UniProtKB/TrEMBL annotation:
It holds the Pfam family YjdM. Gene3D superfamilies: SH3 Domains. SMART domains: PhnA_Zn_Ribbon (SM00782). This is Protein PhnA. Residues 6-52 form the PhnA protein N-terminal proteobacterial domain. It comes from the Bacteria.
Length: 187
């Protein structure tokens, strides 16, 4: 399959994630309704293999997202968000996701590629959360949007499940917040 010359020019003939110039290919970001330059990326074989086969993920390879996520190109922003979301369990991607600002339509596009939740949302002890549950914080967590620190021992009430099984939404200090499920213990 040939690579669009405009894509090669945009990417300076390098992988738009890691900067490699070897074994480049076009990756069309799903969901694909109509192929276009705006919904395509130029990626190396290493990045492509890990995008298409999540079980082969090498988290340290994706530290390049620390720089890549700041691209002005919506396709790169959307795919950077997806890869950071896929790597959340590593810890460091959570910080990058909190810093990342992308337009609402780009974030919606990025989220459209997420798989449905695979299983129940579990607390730090492996107990499943249900709608309306309460939980206790097991460690201090700074709540960015609310600008306060949720201290260990605080109670999160009226839990709602989110579109990912790694987080919950709940009331804390009169504020509705989203928290990582592994920072909580169900009561």
């Amino acid at each position: 399959m040939s690579i669009d010359p405009l894509l090669l020019k945009r990417a300076h003939s390098k992988c738009e994630f890691c900067g490699s110039d070897e074994e480049l290919a076009t990756y069309d970001i799903p969901p694909i309704t109509l192929k276009s330059l705006d919904k395509s990326l130029l990626v190396c074989s290493t990045c492509l293999d890990q995008i298409e086969h999540p079980e082969k993920m090498q988290p340290n390879h994706w530290r390049c997202l620390n720089d890549t996520m700041w691209s002005e190109i919506p396709a790169i922003q959307a795919m950077s968000w997806r890869m950071l979301d896929r790597l959340r369990d590593e810890g460091w991607p959570n910080d990058l996701l909190e810093m990342l600002y992308i337009e609402d339509d780009v974030k919606k596009w990025a989220m459209a590629g997420l798989r449905a939740v695979d299983g129940p949302t579990l607390d730090s002890n492996g107990v499943a959360f249900a709608l309306g549950d309460s939980a206790i914080m097991i460690k201090d967590v700074f709540i960015t949007g609310a600008n306060f620190t949720a201290k260990r021992g605080m109670v999160v009430k009226n839990i709602a499940l989110t579109d990912t099984n790694r987080s919950i939404e709940g009331n804390l200090n009169g504020t509705r917040v989203v928290l990582g499920a592994k920072t909580l213990k169900k009561v």
